[in-house]
Amino acid sequence: MKAAKATKALRPLRVLVLVQEGLIPPDEATPDEVMAAEWKMEYGIIKTLRSLGHTAIPLALGSDLGVIRKAMDAEKPQIAFNCLEGFDEVATWDANVVAYLEMLKLPYTGCNSRGLMLGRDKSLSKTLLSYHRIPVPRFVIVPRGQKVKRPARLTFPLFVKSLTLDASIGISQASVVETDAKLQERVSFIHESIGTDALVEQYIEGRELYVGVLGNRRPEALPVWELSFAKMPEETRHIATERLKWSLAYQKKHGIDSGAADLEPAAAGAMQELCKRSYKILMMSGCARVDLRLSAQGRAYVIEANPNPQLSPDEDFAQSSLAAGLKYPELIQRLLSLGLRWETHRD
Fold this sequence. Notes:
By secondary structure, this protein is an alpha+beta fold. It has three domains: 105 residues, Rossmann fold (3-Layer(aba) Sandwich), CATH 3.40.50; 137 residues, 2-Layer Sandwich (D-amino Acid Aminotransferase, Chain A, domain 1), CATH 3.30.470; 64 residues, Dna Ligase, domain 1 (2-Layer Sandwich), CATH 3.30.1490. The chain has twelve helices and 13 strands. Strands 8, 9, 10, 11, 12 and 13 form a six-stranded antiparallel sheet that branches. The two termini are 31 Å apart.
């Protein structure tokens, strides 16, 4: 794996940091406070921007896009650092916020509105990837209010999850089903408790892998990262459940950790190329994280491409960047640089 490309120093910038309502962090906090806080990512980004000499101006978005225009007039930002994971409590509307930034012609970090829309729609993204012969699990969508009609090509075990939400929301050990009765039960749970359409896909038994991708038209793949389940009982499915993702006590109890995947260089390189192809097919820019499963037979399947990865210093994306030689401040600088160079209106 080649080291990540060096990032040229940027002149000090006025950066409008867009965050969810209620997630503006304090100016200072202890490491323990940061680790347990919902605003962990926002704190790391804002603190790093300021350490780099930039003026970071936090702006909370609730349900009014007009505050962005007012902040532009008052603060004169040169770029927006996008920390949003939705808008007005709707996860898929983050693409609309970015589209608004594009119409305002304000540069921004992260993925463009088209790539966000494609990545958020797991049905459309899987269809596109499959058309381009990217290996993806077989799947079917069950809209809210409809019963499951399982096609014969979808054989058990199956994985049931939300069509639009990420961050492992709604995923538990019960998400992997082995009978039609359990399938209907889990689909009903997604419809009624999570409130979205359900995605039912072939469950791939194997290793849980992630690949971060950075770039615009010439993306760069970071080292392949793996989620390990050292102390999980053998009968337990090795999947990233909601509890596993968000409970530090659960992670410690079951030896959940992540780090560079132990793979042959050729296999790792092939996965990185697969992820870069997926990134391009889904018209992404800035950065994204591609999730894969590696079967026992050694075949890699793209599960999804997340165009809005978690960017906390201690999370997978930043840690894999570090393994590629890109320290966290350099990663933040790279995202700013990519945002300044992206020209949506010319695509």
